[in-house]
Design goal:
The complex is a heterodimer of chains A (about 425) and B (about 450). The N and C termini of chain A lie far apart (about 65 Å). Helix content of chain A is about 60%, strand content about 0%. Chain A has a domain of about 35 residues. Chain A has a two-stranded antiparallel sheet. Chain B is an alpha/beta fold and about 450 residues long. Among the domains of chain B are: about 160 residues, no CATH class; about 80 residues, no CATH class. Chain B is built from 11 helices and 20 strands. In chain B, the strands form 4 sheets. In chain B, strands 1-14-13-12-15-10-11 form a 7-stranded mixed β-sheet, sandwiched between helices. In chain B, strand 10 and strand 11 form a beta hairpin. Classes of the chains: A mainly alpha (about 425), B alpha/beta (about 450). At the A-B interface, helix 1, helix 2, helix 3 and helix 18 of A face strand 19, helix 10 and helix 11 of B.
């Protein structure tokens, strides 16, 4: 059976070989072929090494996608749960999942179809293999969007992320910025009404008419829903120490509370996959066990956040902005910090490469994220901008470390 | 004595380890000298087809350094001269005749070695055809006889997967090794650095001479001489450091002791592709078919490799054993295309990365093959290289500089420092399947062109 399939694959391959009619579409064929069967390519025989490590790009990227599953599954549940709660419905887990799927699945499908088309197009034109890195980008991008985002904006965003964020530089491995964050930044600055403010974080009342019949409780109608995110709630608290925490603890709207524990569990409105710190920690465990994501970057992010938040706590006077008084423990569980730290800052292509560079890169991201949150009222969420900003500076950090290495080498040679 | 511990590196527990005993193999009817064993040298013939040669008589001569010669390991007749593309010499086959003469060179006692001039010793090694065993860092080239090396490093250890262990090859060769070390100490104004595994017996050193001992421990390439130089005696600007394995130093000792070129080599025949992996002692340059028959035939389709899985040279099953290699690896070549391979838990897959179930199985032994295990992709630096490079080098940036052909930058980043073994380890572990080894050779070639 399997042998027969292999035989068919090998016969089809003939049509994509150089000189054959479908030669140009070889990357498309290769993509599907290598999903079905491992490669038959051998190591070059003219020089060693004659054998290779079993890990390839496919398994690497697929493992990251697996690490994202806790966030995805919880995100689907939470999207449904928040919507149903706002609509004043008593729901069970299954109903919440179903409702969540209805909102989230189209976003994921749009991302993969539109982004995938760009990937394949560039692979065919540039004559290189379709890179599995897109699996990760395509999974990350929906998770950092609100569930209410219009699908055409998803399509525009992922197009910008893939083409301008990645392909113009030569594709996966050559990009300077994290493509998923580039895509989100594009949506954020181009269609701010869809991705900021108080109106977009809950999918209540967003069911189209045709779906109302078969989605459980789809016929429930309430008045327009609006709710501030924790960051906005904290930001809008009166000035002075402790008021931001009070505002969060006392916040209550449609059954949602912004206590520390709810923010840790993620049972609050927000971007689809970002709300639950617990789910991020599950993903983090997978990434750390597999040794894919850099623990230096992640610890760096936390250190940067704690130090900067502590510094602001100490320096802020009673008349100042309440965010300046927000303790680090709250910063850790708010907004996209946990998700960004685990999945975005650690993107190996756009992060720093050297060990020391990774520490500096992580610390700067953590510190900048807090600084942007507290000081800049226009962007309550600082993580996205902090990571993109440090993506740009990562090569500079590496340059400093590499120059140190060069200097040591010169000293060594002079001593020899 | 310094003690150096490698924190990084990679031991591959490959299946097919040799039994640690030496089996004597009958002499084959023909042997060959193979110029491709020394890729940095070009050779010209000094004999003609059909000519009768004595054991130890020069057959080939390096064009760049005419004093470097390859000599016949046996008395016989030049039977075949095989050439490849652009008339490059591939092998010179010598039909063995029984009896026959041997070229008698100078014989040295330990006393005479101590008093003789370095140039006389050098000419004796050159005349015996063993000079190409001495390598030179940087660039891993054959040592240039007229050079004055700043130091010489001799490694009495081997950490590469399935590689012939000096402990077995050097049985009963204590005297030869000591003579070899003494001879080497006369070739440099600096020290001879002798490295051996931590916790094992110290090799016996000859009286007099400047020797420095170092112990190494940790994963491969802890035993690789070219890598060890970075930690013992890195060459300064314009300097050369020569290096060789202890087994090769013992061959030099044997040559100088008797004045006769050593005719036999002990070769570890290893890998899952062979029925009886063990050590075999045979005439140098024997046909592979002869050695394989002695080791009980191949068990499956194989790629024969002279040397290690990392830096060895692919041989021809119808051809002859590599001259300088002391391991013959028969690496399985029957690559299977697995259905949906990326979903397998990977119980028998070897990886330095923790993405396979095999990481949970202690003392697992692995059956590697020639598969590339994936496809070529752009660089995704997840820190694989940094797990295997011990020298003070930023490997990702060095590779980028080489690929960008930025000669100044690559030299600054350690082009002349990184060893072939380290580059091969980087190639091995790279999930994007980039070929660091090939890039390094290109970088070295560019360096030679421009300086």
């Amino acid at each position: 059976m399997i042998n027969k399939l292999l035989h068919i694959v090998e016969r089809v391959e003939e049509k994509f070989k150089p000189g054959q009619p479908l030669e140009k579409l070889y990357p498309l064929f290769e993509m599907h072929e290598t999903i079905l069967f491992t490669s038959s390519t051998r190591t070059p025989s003219h020089a060693g090494p004659h054998s290779r490590d079993a890990l390839d790009s496919k398994r690497l990227m697929f493992t990251v996608v697996i690490a994202l599953q806790p966030c995805l599954l919880f995100g689907i549940f939470n999207t449904g749960a928040q919507a149903l709660a706002a609509e004043g419905v008593n729901y069970n887990v299954l109903e919440a999942m179903l409702r969540g799927l209805f909102h989230v699945l189209p976003i994921i499908a749009t991302t993969f179809i539109v982004g995938g088309l760009w990937e394949v197009l560039f692979a065919v034109v540039r004559k290189h293999e379709v890179n599995e890195g897109f699996l990760v980008t395509g999974m990350l991008f929906p998770l950092i969007l609100p569930a209410t985002i219009p699908l055409w904006q998803v399509a525009m965003g992922i197009s910008f992320g893939v083409v301008i964020g990645k392909e113009v530089f030569g594709g996966t491995g050559m990009n300077i910025l994290n493509p998923a964050l580039t895509a989100r930044a594009f949506v954020f600055f181009t269609y701010p009404a869809s991705i900021s403010g108080d109106l977009v974080w809950n999918a209540a009342n967003r069911l189209p008419d045709f779906a109302k019949g078969f989605i459980p409780h789809g016929d429930k109608l309430v008045d327009g829903y609006s709710g501030a995110t924790p960051l906005a709630a904290a930001f809008n608290a009166p000035p002075g120490p402790g008021s931001a925490v009070d505002a969060l603890n006392n916040f209550s709207s449609a059954g949602v509370s912004y206590e520390w524990s709810s923010m840790f569990l993620g049972t609050i409105p927000g971007s689809i996959g970002e709300t639950s710190v617990l789910a991020c920690i599950l993903g983090l465990v997978i990434l750390l066990v597999a040794g894919i994501a850099s623990w230096r970057i992640m610890i760096g992010c936390v250190i940067g956040l704690v130090v900067m938040a502590g510094l602001l706590n100490v320096l802020a006077g009673p008349e100042n902005n309440p965010m300046l008084h927000l303790p680090a423990s709250f910063h850790l569980v708010m907004g996209g910090f946990a998700f960004g730290t685990v999945f975005m800052a650690t993107d190996p292509v756009s992060a720093a490469i050297t060990a020391k560079g990774k520490w500096a890169y992580g610390i700067c991201i953590g510190a900048l994220a807090v600084l942007i949150r507290c000081v800049n009222p226009a962007y309550p969420e600082g993580m996205m901008l902090a990571i993109l900003f440090m993506n740009v500076f990562a090569p500079f950090l590496d340059h400093l470390v590499v120059q140190e290495n060069v200097k040591r080498r010169k000293e060594r040679l002079a001593a020899a | 004595m310094s003690d150096i511990r490698f924190q990084k590196g990679l031991n591959i527990p490959m299946e097919g380890r040799p039994d640690p005993h030496v089996v004597d193999v009958d002499a084959p009817s023909r042997v060959a000298l193979c110029p491709p064993d020394y890729p940095d040298l070009k050779f010209r013939l000094v004999v003609e087809q059909g000519e009768t040669v004595a054991a130890g008589q020069p057959v080939l001569q390096a064009k760049q350094y005419p004093e470097i010669k390859l000599v016949s390991p046996t008395a016989g007749q030049v039977a075949e001269i095989n050439r490849g593309a652009r008339r490059a010499l591939l092998s010179v086959v010598i039909e063995k005749t029984d009896g026959g003469e041997a070229v008698q060179g100078l014989a040295f006692s330990a006393d005479r070695l101590a008093n003789e001039s370095g140039d006389v010793i050098k000419s004796a090694i050159l005349a015996g055809g063993l000079w190409p065993l001495i390598r030179s860092k940087p660039l891993a080239r054959t040592a240039v006889p007229s050079d004055q090396p700043a130091a010489i490093l001799v490694s009495c250890m081997e950490t590469g997967p399935l590689q012939a262990q000096p402990g077995v090859i050097l049985q009963n060769k204590t005297e030869e090794l000591a003579l070899g070390l003494q001879a080497l100490s006369r070739l440099t104004a600096g020290s001879v650095h002798v490295t051996f595994p931590k916790g094992s017996a110290q090799p016996s050193l000859p009286e007099g001479g400047r020797f420095e001992l170092h112990t190494f421990s940790g994963p491969h390439p802890a035993g690789d001489a070219e890598t060890q130089i970075n930690f013992c005696c890195p060459p300064g600007p314009g300097q050369k450091v020569w290096y060789l394995r202890a087994s090769d130093a013992a061959l030099i000792g044997e040559l100088l002791k008797t004045g006769l070129t050593p005719t036999h080599r002990t070769v570890a025949i290893v890998g899952t592709g062979i029925a009886k992996p063990a050590y075999y002692r045979c005439l140098a340059g024997a046909p592979l078919s002869h050695l394989i028959q002695a080791a009980g035939s191949t068990t499956r389709p194989v790629r024969p490799i002279g040397g290690s899985v990392f830096t060895g040279r692919t041989l021809d099953l119808d051809g002859f054993m590599s001259g300088p290699a002391n391991t013959l690896l028969l690496l399985p070549d029957d690559v299977q295309r697995k259905f949906m391979g990326w979903t397998y838990p990977g119980i028998s897959a070897f990886s330095i990365h923790r993405l396979f179930v095999s990481k949970l199985v202690p003392f697992n032994r692995y059956d590697l093959d020639t598969s590339i295990n994936g496809g070529f992709r752009a660089m995704v630096p997840i820190g694989s290289y940094e797990k295997v490079v011990n020298s003070d080098i930023e490997p990702v940036f060095l590779l980028r500089a080489i690929l960008a052909e930025d000669i100044e930058e690559m030299v600054n980043l350690g082009l002349l420092e990184i060893s072939q073994e380290e580059a091969a380890l980087c190639t091995f572990v790279c999930p994007s399947k980039l070929n660091f080894s090939e890039a390094l050779q290109q970088g070295w070639a560019q360096y030679e062109r421009e300086f």
